[in-house]
Design goal:
mainly alpha; 90 residues; 49% helix
Length: 90
């Protein structure tokens, strides 16, 4: 239900759901917020959100993810930081 709400809320109201307890809701929010707002989610407890951030944010914003507890997140962030890969915006 909350994921549906996150999918329908106006973009300017999504910040209210950025800390939702459900990772699926936070993923939905992440896909819709600006890159600047997304940086506030770098310490999210769910690895899937941090992995998506490693894909989506510019390399200079994800340096902290090169030390992430999840190997997939660390690897992707490290590779993107080394290559300087630009933003992967859907």
């Amino acid at each position: 239900m909350r994921r549906t709400v996150a999918a329908r809320l106006p973009e300017e109201s999504l910040g209210l759901m950025r800390d939702d307890p459900a990772p699926e809701v936070r993923l939905e929010v992440l896909e819709r917020i600006s890159l600047e707002e997304a940086t506030d989610m770098l310490d999210d407890p769910d690895w899937r959100i941090r992995l998506r951030l490693a894909e989506r944010l510019p390399p200079e914003a994800i340096e902290s993810l090169t030390r992430d507890q999840d190997e997939d997140v660390r690897t992707l962030a490290g590779n993107r930081c080394k290559r300087g890969t630009e933003v992967d915006e859907p």
